């Protein structure tokens, strides 16, 4: 129980940790942002392909794996279609007037973190002793640049830097609760763990292909973003071998 709480706490608070530089930085280049997003994409791809998917198919079969992955993608698709979200690809765009719709934006960003918390919880419920730590770490690495971008968006909407840091941290805190939900559901319901692992893989791969990769390739930084992605992939594989 202590492992799941600590892992989810570290993963969630990484969002706020990633937003800390907003207190000191005045200008953030697209190049740096794209490098961070691509690195996070590599981390999440490795976690999905080399950890979640093999673990899911080890405890089930191809049909369970496919059902879980497709469900994870469909859930993220519905969220992406029907939940308004900030234009993180262009933080300078004044898409929303935060004064009148701040709650809607913050809620939307928070809801986008729900599948990540579930991924951590389900991973800790599996029989693999190190899978939970690996997924919590990978989600945490992904959350750091996400928190930075969210804070940057809020600052560009004339929100104070400390307030933006606090809001970015809170958007990640929801992962603590959803990870506990995923852990207990998987522990209580027999046969749910492989579905949950596959669901987590599908959700993470949707985020990678739909959000992180396109955003990291949208400003002419494709080459360095590609190498950053590969570096993230190799980092997670190395951590898997080390742990």
TrEMBL record:
Superkingdom, taxonomy of origin: Bacteria
InterPro entries tied to this protein: ZIP
Compartments (UniProt record): Cell membrane
Principal subcellular localization: membrane
UniProtKB keywords: Cell membrane, Membrane, Transmembrane, Transmembrane helix, Zinc
Annotated membrane topology: Multi-pass membrane protein
Transmembrane segment boundaries: 6-24, 36-53, 59-83, 103-125, 131-155, 167-186, 192-212, 224-242
Similarity annotation: Belongs to the ZIP transporter (TC 2.A.5) family.
Official protein name in the record: ZIP family metal transporter
Organism: Paenibacillus farraposensis
């Amino acid at each position: 129980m202590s492992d799941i709480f600590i892992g989810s706490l570290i993963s969630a608070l990484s969002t706020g940790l990633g937003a800390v530089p907003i207190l000191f930085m005045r200008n953030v280049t697209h190049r740096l942002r794209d490098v961070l997003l691509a690195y996070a994409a590599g981390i999440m791809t490795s976690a999905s392909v080399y950890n979640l998917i093999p673990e899911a198919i080890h405890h089930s079969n191809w049909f369970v794996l496919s059902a879980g992955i497709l469900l994870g993608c469909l859930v993220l698709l519905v969220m992406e279609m029907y939940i308004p979200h900030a234009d993180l690809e262009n933080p300078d765009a004044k898409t929303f007037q935060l004064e009148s719709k701040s709650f809607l934006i913050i809620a939307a960003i928070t809801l986008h973190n729900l599948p990540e918390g579930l991924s951590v919880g389900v991973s800790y419920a599996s029989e693999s002793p190190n899978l939970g730590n690996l997924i919590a770490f990978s989600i945490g690495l992904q959350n750091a640049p996400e928190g930075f971008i969210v804070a940057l968006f809020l600052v560009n909407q004339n929100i104070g830097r400390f307030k933006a840091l606090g809001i970015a941290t809170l958007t990640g805190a929801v992962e603590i609760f959803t990870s506990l939900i995923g852990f207990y559901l998987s522990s209580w319901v027999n046969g749910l763990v492989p579905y949950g692992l596959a669901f987590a893989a599908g959700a993470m791969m949707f985020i990678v292909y739909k959000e992180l990769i396109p955003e990291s390739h949208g400003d002419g930084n494709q080459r360095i973003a590609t190498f950053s992605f590969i570096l993230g992939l190799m980092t997670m594989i190395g951590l898997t071998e080390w742990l």
